[in-house]
Predict the 3D structure of the following.
Amino acid sequence: MKIEPFALERNQSLYENTVRFNLSDSGVHPLSLRQVLAQDECEEILSLSQGYGQTNGSPELRRRIAAYYSGLDEHNILITNGSAEANFSVIWTLVEPGDDVLVMLPNYMLVWGALRAFGANAIGFQLREDRNWAPDLDELRDRHTPKTKLIVVCNPNNPTGAILERDAMEEIVACARKSGAYILSDEIYRGSEFSGTDCPSFLDLYEKAIVCSGLSKSMALPGLRIGWIAGPRDVIDGTWHRHDYTTISTSIIGQYVATKVLEPRRRAKILSHSRSHLRQNLAMFSQWLSQHSGTFDFTPPKAGGMAFVRYHLPIGSTALVERFRTERSVFAAAGDWFGMDHFLRFGIGTDANILRPGLELASQTIRELGG
Ligand SMILES: Cc1ncc(COP(=O)(O)O)c(C=O)c1O
């Protein structure tokens, strides 16, 4: 089976640890275990027996996650190695060659590459820059067919940070109902809304919704590699069956920490930290942009650790990020990696002591280019 390169992750794999100022991440600057656990909990980890555990995730952790969605129990949850495995295995479970699948674009392109590798007809519908990144619902309806098996969204969205309005979510559900399609909603940025209120989940609106999420972004714990799939039991069973072939289980330490940090009060505390960190960095980023008036168009994100900007400079986005990296040791994500040339995605969730100097160095290249 052929699979196209996943440009964003490939470039991050190559470069994010080789630069001084990594501005390519979309989550919140990672926390340490000491910041999220009590001392006695850290000690307890030392005594945990390192078995495989329950391969679909401990019942306690699955119950804890299920409680965040209406009408679900532990049988509706599979614990995965990150939300990456979650997305991949849902697509593997549901998609047959020749199926029509509608995909919100721009998006985290794992879904696009995986759909095409499994032989689906991946058909985009756009978030529109001229509508503050609201979806083009006419395009969605026009491209929907009786063969549409799945509609894939990312809400809050990577890379724009946009959040669907409730009526747009309802329209997407109405469209899915017409062909009995599933909705795969990647909600990993839920919990980092700047407004302070979690946006609705598709699981609250549609019985054939499947949600992928995890601890990597809003919860600032990507190194734990804990993600999950929440959805109808038959789909969850199908993904567990595939999990037997891929990773078997997730780590016992990761599951232990996840069970602790997903206690409602602790989760709320971590999310409140994430939101205030993001608000401060967004303010710093906006101030930086104002030094380059006329060079950028910017619709501020409503959630997540990313700022997606259109730029007006005589250079393509891959070449521009290459210049930032090789000349200034600053690494940002190219719009090309999302199929959107002349855009850049800056990670604003990183530490302010990385973001500030990284942006100042990027300014030098931007000025050389006339911006
Ligand atoms: C929308 C989205 N889904 C999934 C992932 C992968 O997340 P994880 O690190 O939990 O595998 C990312 C990472 O950037 C993402 O942006």
